[in-house]
Structures are given as C-alpha cells and as structure tokens.
C-alpha cells in the first residue's frame, strides 16, 4: 500500500459513508489520501466514484496511520483479527457502529 494514505475506513455503510462525505465535503483530507476497505462491490464502486482509493482486502489497511472502523459490532472481531497484531499503539483507531 502506498505510504501517502493517511486514513483508512474499514467498512463504508451508512455511518462510514456519512463520515466520509463530511471529510470530503470539508476538504479535511484529499480523497486520494483515503482508503476504503469494503466487502460490498456496490459500495466500493460508490466510494471510488468519490475519488478515494478502494479495496476489498483488509490487510491493505494494516500500515495506514489512522483507522476508522465503521463496521457493525458483530463484525468487529473479524476486522480485528484481519488487521493483525502489528498495529502500533501510537496509531489512532476509531470505532463507529
């Protein structure tokens, strides 16, 4: 994954999409510095249309400095397992359900 990605969204359903729209609308971060990890091909296409980078591979978010977890509570364990134990404690992780 490119080193210039600053924020990764893990999941981009209703809540994640609203937060993404806010970030992009406020121009808080350029779209090309955001990665969206999502299982739904339809949601990936919607996010790509906004100019952000997209993937369905969770492991691509492992080295991104900031994560926003926008998954349902029942999916959290799977996401945590997929991210692995190499996350540094100095990195920001935010969870929204």
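Q: What amino acid sequence fits the structure above?
A:
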């Amino acid at each position: 994954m490119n080193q210039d990605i600053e924020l990764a969204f893990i999941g981009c359903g209703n809540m994640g999409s609203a937060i993404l729209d806010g970030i992009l609308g406020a121009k808080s971060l350029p779209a090309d510095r955001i990665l969206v990890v999502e299982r739904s091909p339809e949601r990936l296409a919607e996010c790509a249309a906004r100019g952000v980078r997209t993937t369905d591979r969770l492991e691509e978010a492992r080295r991104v400095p900031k994560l926003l977890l926008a998954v349902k509570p029942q999916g959290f364990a799977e996401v945590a397992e997929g991210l692995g134990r190499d996350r540094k404690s100095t990195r920001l992780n935010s969870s929204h359900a």
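Q: And what stands out in the fold?
A: The mean pLDDT is 86.
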